[in-house]
Amino acid sequence: MTRHAVILKGAKSDFLEIRKYVKRQFSDLVWAEVNHEFKDTIQRIASNPLLGTQLEELAGLGLGGDARCFNANLENGV
Fold first, then answer.
1. What is 33-64 written as a DSSP string?
2. How much of the chain is helix, strand and coil, in % rounded to 5?
């Protein structure tokens, strides 16, 4: 079951800050690798929406009980 992954506005601004930092401190090449890993992880979450841990704190948001926290462990493919 694949779902559409939604990146919240706050996460987008954090992502842009991370991008700026990585490019400044490391290189465009390192950023390209990090960005690819990020996009791959988001795609895996969209393809496997039941991965992750359910959070009681998010139950009241009206997300149908599918509010989950994801820990992107890239080495283990999760």
1. HHHHHHHHHHHHHHH-TT-SEE-GGGGGG-ST
2. 60, 5, 35
CA-to-CA dists, residue 65 to 49, 50, 52, 57, angstroms: 12, 11, 13, 11
Residue 39: name the closest of 76, 72, 2, 3 by CA. 72
42-59, pLDDT tens digit by residue?
A: 888 888 877 766 667 766
Is residue 3 within 8 A of residue 45, CB to CB? The reply is: no
pTM reported for the whole predicted model:
0.62
